[in-house]
Fold these 2 entries.
Entry 1:
Amino acid sequence: FDAHFGTQIPSSLKMRDRANNSLVAPTHINRYFFPSTYPVFVKDAAGGRIRDLDGNEYVDLSGGYGPHILGYSHPVVNEAIISGVTAGNVNGIGHEPEVELAELLVDAFPAAEKAILCNSGTESVLLAVRLCRAYRRRDVVVKFEGHYHGFSDQGMVSSWFRFTGDKHAPEPIAGTLGSDSGVVRNTLVFQYGDIGGLDRLREHADRLACVIVEPMPSSTAAIDEEFLSALRRTTADLGIPLVFDEVVTGFRVAYGGAQTIAGIEPDLTCLGKIIGGGLPCGAVVGRAELTDMARSSEDPFLDYEKKAFAGGTLSGNSLTCRAGNAVLTHLRDHPTLYEDLEARTRWLRAEFEESTRKRGIACRINARGSIFSLNFSHRSAGVYRERMAGSNFKATIALAYYMRKHGVYLPELHSFLLSAAHTDDDLAVVGKAFDLSLTDMAGD
Ligand code: PMP
């Protein structure tokens, strides 16, 4: 794109070249899928803003893909981390912060009795599926098309981009090269929102370990409460554990996650992101009958075959737990924070919609509880694959590029996230940048 970047972001460009010589950065979507033409390397971050190596400031709507609901460098998190470092970071030995985090998690979800801590959302899904397989002594996992559950083979089956088979009974497809084909074969794929399709659960009930679903898929930022109720009823009838993946939505759309909004109790809930205050963290919470599949017992060797193993050297380390406790306590004690976020989300969504409407641009924006999903698409309905097929992804990528030019960091091809630290001023910058970016895009 523009030659003027040589003067605007010279240090980031230099760092990009240096990084490319030694670092494969698959966790950074903007370097994995499509090397960004506007790379940003952060020098520091505070509140709702980040600053790059050249001193350019951006209002950040990536939120680090989820953890930073209080914004960057929040004093309560900083203090917790600093005191944790001073006290010594402990892992693999019991300590109070891990007990406190488990208590906070269990208290947040009516359906949760016990928690197991791990290091990421990916790990929480691996663990939840293992607990269910151990409990049911069955292998097959049911998941929904387009739902990403972390980067494990299981988490990525039919998670994005490539879809085959009947839309009501999709064929499972590996989400990445290098997947174990056995995992793909042991997965059944359903459509979120397709209540009629749930009859297939009855047909396969005897093979099923569990059903895992994002109750509020981040690709749509919308909860289908009627569908979730039907799913809960059917799985309960059949005795199949229902796992909610609330790695993104837990403590974000409401303190108790999407399940609190929908009023539905899953058997297990997968968590991550916010619960570690920006440090690596994950957790499975849920019914003790399931979580206890991994419980230690008086005589571990005698009943070893009857248990599922949960491990992780750094799982529940005291530093992560202290950071998580600080964020969760703050969120719990400031319940109006969620109403404020919702109001800001509505305001910004209206700004976006006004900008696209006045230009006649087909753009579908779903926004709820600080999560925005934006697609340049004529389709507002239909199942996941149909909405994706109708979306102009090049325009979404171009938008991220122009928004950076106008002082806003958007992640490419990922939902945008507001934090409680974004000020009215920050939001005004975003609204204006969106309008200017659409003008730039129309002009190119
Ligand atoms: N589940 C969902 C719904 C996610 O969006 C993600 C990551 N964005 C994960 C699981 C995996 O979490 P992590 O990246 O922490 O492993």
Entry 2:
Amino acid sequence: MLKNDLLDQWDRENFFHPSTHLAQHARGDSPSRVIKTASGVYIEDRDGHKLLDAFAGLYCVNAGYGRQEITDAIAAQAKELAYYHSYVGHGTEASITLSKMILDRAPANMSKVYFGLGGSDANETNIKLIWYYNNILGRPEKKKIISRWRGYHGSGLVTGSLTGLELFHKKFDLPLANVLHTQAPYYFRREDLGQSEAEFVAHCVTSLEEMIAREGADTIAAFIGEPVLGTGGIVPPPAGYWPAIQEVLKKHDILLVVDEVVTGFGRLGSMFGSDHYGLEADIITIAKGLTSAYAPLSGSIIGEKLWKVLEQGTDENGPIGHGWTYSAHPICAAAGVANLKVIEALDLMNNARDLGAYLKGALADALGDHPHVGDVRGEGLLCAVEFVKDKDDRIFFDTSEKIGPQISAALLAQSQVIARAMPQGDILGFAPPFCLTHAEADIVVAATVQAVGAVLG
Ligand code: PMP
């Protein structure tokens, strides 16, 4: 085994870490954290510290760590057939089985699954297919995509553009043309504090309608959104938001892409967020929970309406000019099949729903009256606590104070519990594996109370 010092040195010298302050890391100001093993909701670092992972990695290890059914399936597939491609009609039993399992569980009117590796490339696929679709339909000007401020859809060129967070645009020359951002359905951060929830929803709808009128509906191809805003702050939509938005989209013949990378396969306590909120998607993006991150796999579930036109397009133009080498990689597909079986055999989706309600309730009970806790919110096993400087007048802390990161760091240092400081605002996010128990939820809540006390008094 490598000595810690050498590992730290090699890490700093060689490893370009994503979403990391590169200069600080290279200077050694932020410690390398090397994870060695994991089981259930716990991960263990190289020094044997056990950390309770209340964010399931990057809200992806839904089945929990160390599931032998999944690792066995991966090993068996690697032995039998580690790889073959899926171009020109090729496939494997694992990839075909997984596409059938996904469609059997998907909302109505879904037709086919296109596999990718991660959420970003799946959303790139979606936008390309939507542009292809409108070209085949003879409306080449209908190409713009509307996303929301604070939406997160990836960090590629188009998907980083769709992501409505400044950090992902700044200095990268993004967003690209053809990407527009509209109002986030974030009631707690409404500008007009006097607005009721219903008035705020009406404001979101009006903003969207004004944007469509300004740009011209014949230039707008699609609207993309997560059922619950994730990385942008873990924000469930206000009541009535989705039905009202869907009505506008239908009126203007604008496709709906529902990004279920976080919500797909049970995190909200329903198989899909689309089921949860009654969304009628044209395309659904899936990733993370599809394999519980045991292997990288994503998918675009394509609705029947699009599929028909894509088929027509290939009759007119030849094979679809879009493919990844690792599309439907058999090892990843085998992980997906085993993962969905584990989730269902152990009834983990219902556990996610029940424990989510318990965790949110316990956080609200313990912290709701704290003078600097402005909001405790969540849906299913996805919740957040948002901190404010002044609760009565809802004044936020200055970002330079880094209150969210400080609380997350205190939580880790004092209690070995991981919750995520969300990237924009002082928001602590919780999205543990679905196998969380009541006792583990209690540990998370007690640790959070202690960390909040240490930073904010
Ligand atoms: N969409 C959503 C809703 C996500 O949360 C993420 C990742 N957090 C992505 C897309 C991008 O996925 P990936 O990082 O696998 O490319």
